[in-house]
Amino acid sequence: MILFESERLLVQPYSAADGDAFFRFHGDAEVMRYIRAPKTREQTDAFLQENLQFYLEHPGIGRFAVIEKAKGEYIGSFSLLPLEDTVNYHLGYGFLQRAWGKGYATELVATSINYAFQTIKRDVIMAITLPQHVASQKVLVKAGFVESGTIIQEGENLKLFCLQQKKSSLP
Hints:
Blueprint: E1 4-5, E2 9-13, H1 19-26, H2 41-57, E3 62-68, E4 73-82, E5 89-95, H3 104-119, E6 124-129, H4 134-142, E7 146-153, E8 156-164
Helix pairs in contact: 1-2
């Protein structure tokens, strides 16, 4: 099942067969630099199972595989998850190193906005970044997000970005 797609990317749920790809992403210290501490294979296998269970309890949101259409290869992860202690959702993304610098983040974020607003029926989408993750902040601003202060999540002081759905003036 494809959640949504862009010109070059497919976003779809992970499956139990995605353990190797999940580990390549979550086990790479450089990929995880602005996300969380890298995980061991055992930890990523357990984390994958948690994510598969999350799909059952929260249809349409969670962590998802990003596939490069041209080669049909896994290149990263997209997430749409509840923001701690709020009713809002935040999006997140990351890519394997071989996919860096190709404009995939900008493409993914731009496409995910419609999914969050239209399919998941959110009026506001949030995003959070470490203060030093300037590249990700530029992607968010380019997609229309506005820096909206700071927030503490999982003990980290993070920059908060918000995007409000534009209301149509048509009746």
